[in-house]
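DM from R.C. (forwarded with permission)

"hey, sorry to bug you on a friday — could you get me a structure for this? deadline for the figure draft is monday and I only need the backbone to look sensible"
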Amino acid sequence: MTPANHGGPMSDNTDNTTNPSWTQALLIYIEPRVFAMLFLGFSAGLTFPLVVTTLTAWMTEANVPIKTIGFFGWIAIMFSIKMFWAPIVDRINLPLLTKLFGHRRSWMLVAQVGIFFGLFLMASTDPEKNTTMLALFALLTSFSAATQDIGIDAYRIESAEDIVNEKGKSEKDIHRYQGAMAAIYITGYRIAFLFASAGALYIAHYFSWQVVYYVMACSVSVGFITALIIREPRIKVSKSTLENEQKVIDYLERSKHIPKKIRDINAWFIGAVICPFVDFIKRYGKLSLYILMLIGIYRISDTVLSQMANPFYLKLGFSKIEIANITKFLGFGMAIFGTLLGGILASKYGLMRPLLLGAILVAVTNLFFAVLAKTGYSIIGLSLVISADSVASGLAGAVFVAYLSNLTNTAYTATQYALFSSIMTLPAGFLKGFSGIIVSAYDNKPIIYLENLFNSSVRTYLPNLKNKSTEVFTYPLDILKDQSNMMFALLDNRLEGFFYFFIYVSAIGIPAAFLIIYLFHKEHEPVPASDKTQ
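My reply, with the result:
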């Protein structure tokens, strides 16, 4: 299918130019505006583990119930519903700040101030005694971080088009720059993630969790300084966008009888909220539904799994230092490899083939956690699982960010990308709130049934045997009961609940691969809308 404002089919290689060489695919990373995304990626990646994975480790050690820890996964829902205030970030200028720093940068700076205060207040709170207050402060941090994401995502997408326009390159080159910028952005994101997770575990081991959050609050300065240095991208509005905005003009003409303030609010809503959605549906037509379905389930496995990762490692018996060394440092290196590989593959082969590869790898590697739940504590086992999972996650993440970026129209960058990323995280964000319940519901259920059946039988027949038989006869039965209790206690340590949980999170990601194959068959390779395509 050919979208309305594109000039031809959107397959992986729709133009007649040859694919870039491997050297050209690598050299794209030295473009200054591409490399700058490393620091913005760090700014974006710093906060998420502090309100999700790192926070679960702190709460686990503070003896917060596992079900409560699961519910804390809903705090990250702010990243999933940011589409509701994205039009404000997209369209409304901040007094004074916008004139000084530009539209995107000013919103980044305000959001970073909110992140700083949120983390500082979290550091001052006791998880066990003030769980509710901790949740509120984490919510403030999450909201501010989601707002920052809106600004950074819009800046990244608009900068890619700015590079293409400045260098006089073809619109077909946009996916190359988006792939590279997504990869370097995620690299910075993962560096920050490592610092806010592994670094946090080290700091907590030698100092305290309060110190962790004070240090992380100070680290927000990296993003703040970056936002001060970078330059605002130049935005071009496409012809189709102007046609959509005509709806606003038509409304104003038809509604002259309505009070001016109400007319202005309605006109803003049409231009900032309705037009971005109309633009997306118009460009992709019937494929829009399938694209949105793919966005909703592509990263669902990894997102749901992350909520129970640290509790799982701790329940297996790994120390905080072991978790930091293996899941963070080793995982970081493998994830960076996967991320850069994803960017290179997207630059050379387009988006759809690496996107399919990522979906398959994520589903398969999540099953490795289920194997680890059965085998138990093993440094080698955890290392292998984390290595495989990190490469798959890095590759899939880089390609998927590039894919989402190329779906947007640069006139509605923040709103459309926020819509896509919200759809990406909302189903997973909702489901992971129940992750603790899932683990608790299935944890050792088969074993508990067997144990109850055995003990009820022993309690029923053993007293009768003792009354009717000699002690010599019943003594072996007493030993059998004691030994059975020891056996069931050992079986309890096999973490059956986590085993079924990991099977579940792997299965829910499989449909993404079929959707990608369908879209690939329809020759769907997205390119952002711009004036050149008209």
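R.C.: lifesaver. The chain has 26 helices and no strands.
me: no worries. Confidence is low (pLDDT under 50) at residues 1-17, 446-451, 468-475, 486-493.
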